[in-house]
Specification:
The complex is a heterotrimer of chains A (about 70), B (about 160) and C (about 450). With about 70 residues, chain A is mainly alpha-helical. Chain A is about 40% helix and about 0% strand. The termini of chain A are far apart. Chain B is globular, with a radius of gyration of 15 Å. The chains are: A mainly alpha (about 70), B alpha/beta (about 160), C mainly beta (about 450).
Chain lengths: ~70, ~160, ~450
């Protein structure tokens, strides 16, 4: 695994470790509910970007988009 | 002492008697962190926690509205507690989603916190003796039958039968 | 896994969650509660232009239809039309170079006019083998001295479609699945994917997993060449297939009311034909550096990729900052790093502008060579495709959006991409020292988007 990936892993582990103690109260999800705060707010645009970058570069996407949002129901 | 902000324009439609009760509540200096329901002892209270950003709330409002029409005579009171940080957002929602029931504003989430709301929207059903009997997390139009059954149980209890 | 949580945006109202009709619950004369859209149509058109190279136009549309509270159906379609020159892979020379590839088969005796094949290549007739009843027409491209060899005969049209399904089985558990199909004149791809997601901690933590299987078929014009054989215009080998399996694991965490973070790990395993059937690699003279032969490239049959992706979104007072990082490596020896930054500046309720910067850098594949040297041992795999070379690339862009209505948004995004590699490797031989072996790739894109809900 390259150094850059290792750095990301450490940063992420530091941030995500202790997940249960982080978060927003259910009545505090107003900002998370906004369309622009979703992980993939413009799916067509991101699909097109992936298509362009994959045709010019050697790396390919591979990310997920679940989570965030208003947390309703 | 902090007083819960009450009353949207919609509250003009609630009955005068209920309005007087709530006015009494205000002038008695109800604490914002604790919705004072003493005035409703003897009535079944359905508290609905909602927000302008909560999608299922849009679905729930027509049903909440018709609850008052359907069960008001049996002394059901519906109260909508709004948790928007921003009053304008709540008002915009109310302009588009009619509510005949009273709205209480809880922008700092103190009432929500006091009732330990676990999801949005949330409903707390309180019996005639003032005890919390049922809680719902989320709203689904498929479940309104179930919700109404629960209300019917509470409404059928005579005040003296409710647990103290 | 592609889960789209369509939620209400306060004040902007776009992409509200879809509601079932509250039939029969309203008294006569009462104002009707506003119905949230049950159908959302997303459309976009991309105009892509590489300076001196390919141009493409790609319209795309996606429809999301709420079936009921728990189930959503999506369908999408894209078409693209690509024209213009692309690098052949051969090195530039101080001498004129000619490249030929098979272009068409016609029955023996068919009158042929020597015209230009699409895009400026010249048609040449290949004498048939003895007894053959057909003749091959080749496309011949002549490249002047000291210019980077580009094949002008490139025109491709692609159509793609996808169908998807998402269902909530419980308030915290969702599954989704879908199929996709894509076809161009020399390539076909079919795929199927499934995924699931589970929420914890009052929807503050979401774990998700996805699996994708793809099966591709390559049927190049002129057939599939035998790797590392000499360039020629003879008709070549049969179709070649490729299979790919991808897995993604992700965790998303609402950190605070304003901060969302998401980490995903993905793994891909590919088996089958992965070479570019049209790309060449030059064999050069060890002293003069002049090309003496052109060979078809050869990439390994197998490839394993891994990547780690971290995204953070922070909602300031009204603006939103998005920072994403990705680290990638594969067993072809390629490692890459990507950093992407967007700042959405909200201007009132209806307008926003979002500047965007992306930095990308990659290392070369183990078998990437600018050229091979005559007399040296032939490697098992070799490619001169600069897509596999070491380079860095920057993207600079800005997006402007306007909310037209509660359920409609129009936006336009303009971007500039600049890819820069080493065009003068230190150990270049002879005339190659004065050539640019990796010209910058510069591209402009304009993306127009329109979304509406009913």
């Amino acid at each position: 695994m390259p150094l850059s990936t290792a750095v990301i892993a450490v940063v992420a582990a530091g941030g995500i470790g202790g997940c249960a103690s982080f978060g927003a109260k259910p009545w505090e999800r107003d900002l998370m509910a906004e369309q622009a705060m979703q992980l993939d707010p413009y799916p067509l645009e991101s699909a097109i970007d992936n298509h362009i970058y994959f045709s010019k570069e050697a790396s390919s996407g591979g990310r997920s988009f679940a989570g965030g949002g208003c947390g309703c129901n | 002492m902090r007083v819960a902000k009450l009353f949207s324009r919609r509250s003009r439609r609630i009955s005068l008697v209920t309005g007087l009760f709530i006015a009494a509540l205000v002038s008695a200096g109800a604490r914002a962190s604790d919705l004072d329901l003493d005035a409703y002892r003897g009535k079944v209270v359905y508290i609905d926690f909602w927000a302008s950003w909560c999608a299922p709330c849009r679905e729930s409002f027509p049903w909440l509205d018709q609850l008052e029409r359907q069960f008001g005579a049996q002394n059901l009171v519906v109260i909508g507690v709004n948790v928007d940080h921003d009053r304008d957002s709540a008002e915009r929602f109310l302009n588009q989603n009619f509510a005949s029931f009273p709205i209480v504003y809880d922008p700092l989430g103190k009432i929500a916190s006091a009732y330990q709301v676990k999801g949005m929207p949330s409903a707390v059903l309180i019996d005639r003796a003032g005890q919390v009997r049922f809680e719902h997390i989320g709203f689904s139009s498929k479940k309104t039958g179930e919700y109404e059954d629960q209300l019917q149980i509470l409404l059928n209890e005579r005040p003296s039968e409710s647990s103290r | 896994m592609q889960l789209k949580s369509r939620t209400i945006q306060p004040g902007l109202g776009l992409r509200r969650a879809l509601a079932t009709a509250a039939a029969g619950l309203l008294a006569n004369g009462e104002a009707r509660a506003q119905e949230a859209p049950s159908t959302i149509i997303d459309s976009a058109v991309l105009v892509y232009h590489e300076v001196g190279r390919v141009q493409a136009i790609e319209p795309e549309v996606n429809v999301t239809q709420k079936i009921d509270e728990d189930r959503t159906l999506t369908a999408g379609f894209a078409a693209d039309s690509l024209t213009g020159p692309t690098p052949i892979g051969a090195v530039p020379s101080t001498l004129t170079q000619t490249y030929v590839r098979p272009y068409k088969i016609v029955a023996l005796g068919t009158p042929v006019t020597v015209t230009t094949a699409s895009g400026g290549a010249t048609v040449v007739i290949i004498p048939p083998a003895t007894g053959a009843k057909y003749q091959v027409l080749g496309a011949s491209t002549t490249v002047p001295p000291n210019s980077y060899p580009l094949d002008h005969g490139f025109h491709d049209e692609r159509m793609a479609g996808n169908l998807g399904w998402e269902q909530a089985l419980t308030p915290t558990f969702k599954i989704d699945g879908g199929v996709a199909y894509s076809k161009e004149h020399d390539y076909r791809s079919e795929s199927i994917h499934i995924g699931l997601s589970q929420d914890f901690n009052a929807h503050n933590t979401t774990f998700n997993a996805g699996l994708n299987y793809e099966s591709d078929l390559s049927f190049p014009i002129g057939g599939t060449p035998t790797p590392l054989t000499l360039m020629n215009a003879n008709w070549k080998g049969p179709d070649a297939s490729l299979r790919e399996v991808d897995a993604v694991l992700g965790i998303t965490q609402v950190m605070t009311r304003r901060w969302l973070t998401s980490l995903s790990y993905s793994f891909s395993d590919l088996h089958g034909y992965q070479s570019d059937p049209y790309k060449l690699i030059s064999v050069v003279d060890p002293v003069s550096g002049q090309p003496t032969a052109q060979l078809y490239e050869n990439r390994p049959d197998s490839r394993r990729k891994q990547s780690l992706f971290l995204e953070n979104k922070v909602h300031l007072t009204s603006d939103i900052v998005t920072v994403a990082l990705r680290g990638y490596s594969d067993d072809w020896g390629i490692k890459s790093f990507t950093a992407d930054l967007r700042y959405r500046l909200q201007m009132g309720v209806d307008y926003y502008v979002e500047p965007h910067v992306r930095y990308y850098q990659q290392g070369a594949a183990d078998f990437f060579h600018y050229y091979l040297v005559s007399g040296e041992a032939m490697p098992q795999y070799a490619s001169a495709d600069t897509r596999l070379a070491a380079f860095h690339a920057q993207t600079y862009g800005a997006k402007f959006g306007v909310r037209l209505d509660d359920n409609a948004e129009l936006n336009v995004r303009v971007e500039y991409y600049d890819q820069h590699g080493n065009g003068s490797p230190a150990n270049a031989i002879g005339q190659l020292r004065q050539q640019d072996l990796f010209p910058d790739l510069k591209a402009y894109t304009v993306l127009l988007g329109f979304t509406i809900g009913f």
